[in-house]
Amino acid sequence: MPIVVIEILLGITVGPSLLGWARSNGRILLSEFGLALLFFVAGNEIDFALIRGRPLRGV
Description:
The chain is an all-alpha fold. The protein is built from 3 helices and no strands. It has helices at 3-14, 30-44, 48-51.
């Protein structure tokens, strides 16, 4: 199971849907932080060796 799935499930559990431990207070939303973390994790999983090669040319 990917770590992203675990993070999303943890966010749903901690958020206002279930336990209500995390609430929006007008400053930085926990969901925005989670989304930034998701992009960071996805960026770390890019294997640049697989996408290396000749660039595509426009038609």
